């Protein structure tokens, strides 16, 4: 059997040990600092891994800011924080009273979500909605909770409706999520929507109301199982169409609909020499090449688009469209109007 080390290699190894170049057998290894790491933890930043999710959250922030500003008649600034994946057990351990825990139904998507509204943000939003133009968010988080009256609960539900609409519009290009408020809770233990071991997508929205006030964070937690079917879309690069504001397309459509357009109904045609044309006098009849039962062409901007029949409508002569050009018969060259 061939030895592992040759005699020359053995001599070199012993010489290195005597000169201190190698640790002698039985010597203690050098001590190093140990850093604990939980391999079971699901809490991790996912920005960059799910770029479409980042785009959705940015869209939520902008829609919430616009919606709240319109509802409260006050300047509102909303910024989004990086989304994280964490277990529901870890999520509930990080949030606690005083806060309002809003349980949301996700519409056609299975599962429920939780929206956490801090107490200081709740009071500021209600004050602004009830007409206080000086409403601000306290810099110091509130330590006590005030029970909502019937009027305040009604107003607060409308404010939550603005947030639900924003979430639904932002997720619409990827998943038909239609959040709606199911109930309000003051204890996080009563707002459990999934087993503690399940993973949730946690998104933070920092809200600033008015000028000179503080900032409070809305926290939205959606079970990852509810959106797992579109994981590939969330991992892909977001398309520009998924984040385009629909108001631009609507405004463009309105502008196009207001453009003037020329419609021309061709009753018939006749050919004659210039001599005969100059000889035409008042009361004379010019015979056209159109049969009585033949549909007449309708030109749009000089281009043959439809065919119809002349009829009397409300006491006036009108051309009623019956078919599009090309249906039933091909348009002829003489239906084009030179110069449009």
List strands and helices in order, with pairings.
Blueprint: H1 7-18, E1 44-45, H2 51-72, E2 76-80, E3 84-87, H3 88-94, E4 99-105, E5 112-118, H4 119-129, H5 150-171, E6 180-185, E7 199-209, E8 215-223, H6 224-227, H7 231-235, H8 240-243, H9 246-257, E9 263-265, H10 274-278, E10 296-300, E11 303-313, E12 316-324
Antiparallel strand pairs: 1-3, 2-7, 3-7, 4-5, 4-6, 5-8, 7-8, 9-10, 10-11, 11-12
Main beta sheet: 8 strands, antiparallel
Q: What's the CATH architecture of the largest domain?
A: 3-Layer(aba) Sandwich
Q: Which residues sit in consecutive blocks of at least 5 with pLDDT less than 50? A: 333-340
Order of helices and strands: HEHEEHEEHHEEEHHHHEHEEE
Shape type: elongated
**Euclidean distance between termini CA atoms:** 101 Å
* Helix content range: 25-40%
| Assigned CATH superfamily of the largest domain | CheC-like
Highest CATH level, the class of the largest domain: Alpha Beta
Number of structurally distinct domains: 2
Radius of gyration: 37 Å
The overall strand count is 12
SSE-based structural type: alpha+beta
Overall pLDDT metric? 82
* Number of helices, where a helix is a run of at least 4 consecutive DSSP H or I residues: 10
CATH topology type of the largest domain? Chemotaxis protein chec
- Beta strand %: 15-25%
Give structural attributes.
2 domains; Chemotaxis protein chec; 4-stranded antiparallel beta sheet; 340 residues; 31% helix; Surface presentation of antigens (SPOA); 10 helices; alpha+beta; elongated; 23% strand; 8-stranded antiparallel beta sheet
């Amino acid at each position: 059997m061939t030895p592992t080390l040759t005699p020359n290699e053995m001599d070199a190894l012993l010489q290195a040990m005597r000169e201190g170049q190698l640790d002698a057998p039985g010597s203690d290894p050098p001590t190093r600092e140990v850093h604990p790491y939980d391999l079971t933890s699901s809490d991790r930043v996912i920005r960059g891994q799910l770029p479409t999710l980042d785009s959705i959250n940015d869209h939520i922030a902008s829609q919430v800011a616009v919606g709240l500003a319109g509802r409260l008649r006050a300047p509102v600034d909303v910024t989004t924080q990086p989304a994280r994946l964490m277990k529901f057990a870890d999520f509930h351990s990080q949030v606690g009273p005083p806060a309002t825990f809003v349980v949301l139904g996700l519409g056609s998507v299975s599962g429920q979500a939780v929206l956490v509204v801090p107490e200081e943000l709740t009071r500021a939003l209600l004050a602004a909605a009830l007409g206080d133009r000086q409403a601000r968010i306290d810099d110091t988080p509130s330590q006590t909770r005030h029970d909502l009256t019937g009027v305040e609960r009604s107003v607060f539900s409308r404010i939550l409706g603005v947030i639900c609409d924003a979430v639904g519009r932002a997720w619409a290009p990827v998943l038909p999520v239609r959040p709606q408020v199911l109930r309000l809770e003051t204890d996080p233990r009563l707002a459990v929507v999934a087993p503690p071991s399940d993973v949730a997508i946690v998104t933070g929205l920092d809200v600033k109301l008015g000028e000179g006030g503080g900032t409070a964070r809305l926290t939205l937690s959606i079970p990852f199982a509810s959106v797992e079917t579109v994981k590939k879309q969330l991992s892909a690069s977001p398309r520009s169409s998924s984040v385009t504001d629909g108001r631009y397309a609507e405004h463009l459509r309105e502008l196009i609909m207001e453009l003037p357009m020329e419609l021309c109904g061709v009753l018939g045609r006749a050919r004659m020499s210039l001599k005969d044309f100059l000889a035409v006098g008042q009361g004379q009849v010019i015979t056209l090449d159109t049969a009585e039962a033949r549909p007449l062409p309708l030109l749009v901007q000089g281009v043959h688009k439809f065919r119809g029949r002349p009829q009397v409508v409300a006491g006036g002569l009108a051309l009623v469209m019956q078919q599009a050009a090309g249906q039933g018969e091909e348009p002829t060259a003489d239906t084009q109007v030179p110069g449009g």
